[in-house]
Write a structure and sequence with these properties.
The protein is of the alpha/beta class and about 475 residues long. Strands 1, 2, 3, 4, 5, 6, 7 and 14 form an 8-stranded mixed beta sheet that branches. Strand 12 and strand 13 form a beta hairpin. It is globular, with a radius of gyration of 23 Å. The two termini are about 30 Å apart. The model has no long low-confidence stretch (mean pLDDT about 95).
Amino acid sequence: MAAVRLAACVVAGVLTALSVPPWGWWPLAFVGLAVLAVATEGVERARRRAKLGLGFGLGMFVPGLWWMSDFHAVGGPLVMLAEAAFVMVAVIVAPPSGRWRVVAFPAALVLAEAVRATIPFGGLPMAGIPPGQVDGPLAPLARVGGELLILGAVALVAMRRVLAVAAVVLLAVLSAAAPDGGAPTGHLDVAVVQGGGRRGFRAVDTDPRQVFEAHVEATAGVRPGVDVVVWPEDVVDVDRPITEAEAGAVLAATADGLDTVLVAGVVEDVRGTRFANAAVAWGPDGQLLDRYDKVHRVPFGEYVPGRSFLDRFVDLSVIPRDAVPGTGPGRLDTPAGRLGVVISFEVFFADRARAAANAGGRLLLVPTNAASFKTSQVPTTQVAAARLRALETGRDLVQAAPTGYGAVVDHHGRLRARTTLGRRQVVHETVALRDGRTVYARFGDAPVIVLAAGALAVAWWRRRIDQVVNSRHP
């Protein structure tokens, strides 16, 4: 029986993984969590629940994070195991029985996801359930309680209790009517530039000058009269401040020639041993307007935690320099309006988009670089995350990537345009500017976390009381 339960949990984890992009079969998340709930119910020994939770986590995160194995044959599986451990802990701390399990089980999953998005090294909120629900009926919950509320709602439905399902349906209806960023205060014509080129791990070896020239050439296809032109992350690579580099002069002349605001992803050397990763804006007169330096760096991608220690045991030549972290919210002040910015990896972190919107960003820009991923898995997941950020903040969103996906998303999370992977392409769209704030933009994750922690604490308290009563009245 124990083997059957474990096998069921592994299969349930795989089904849940298939609910997330690039597969995106969102109903399977309800099936997967329902199987996990049934398989773990009544299992009193914490060690047995740990095995079941770990089995589900591996079933979910091995396919969900398989792309990591392309970058490191050992590091990738270790990350998969570490992420699965968060599910294991959630299953351990959820009461295995009792009347309050119907809320305690979802609460434990929500708290585990909140921690997973924070530690270690700033968290890795990828391959989780919420991005897969962006095309499902629970997506509007994002503007009220973000990804955590979506996860909690999926888990509540999976508990298969009439009152729980009814509560989720009511909450989804109310969320659909909740503040969504408000009426447009203006509109912008935008152009998303994609230079195209090869994809995969070795794409990082492409001559930076070729990448830059590809985007210069692609920009020749931008129609006159656009208000904002968006270039991807890391397509301008210079060994000095951009204001002193030849590429900076080219970008200034491009903005001037198009009479537009041009936002481009720039990587600059800093003292030869570090680098800055920024989104830089030039105005219609060719003058540099503003810049935002990426705050949330990619661990073991843009910097190595504990480099001086690890360098004694591991060859770190693939990541020879660390990025200098930026500060503050992502915001660019331009003649086209105040623009919010989240750079690449930051799009997976709701707090970065929320900070940009709360700092006055009326439109969200996501310059990114997904060229090193050989499959569509990460680019597709990134678009899903961008759609959630648009829902959470009530902002239209524009994403640009050197080889895709570039995308335009409205404030309801609907995908209005998407580029083709690898192709040289320019997408033109009209987007709205908004000043209103959603419930999530105002309050963030705190209310959902507090509610989940309270539900879990009450469940254990009530379970303990029931146990005492039953021991006195066998």
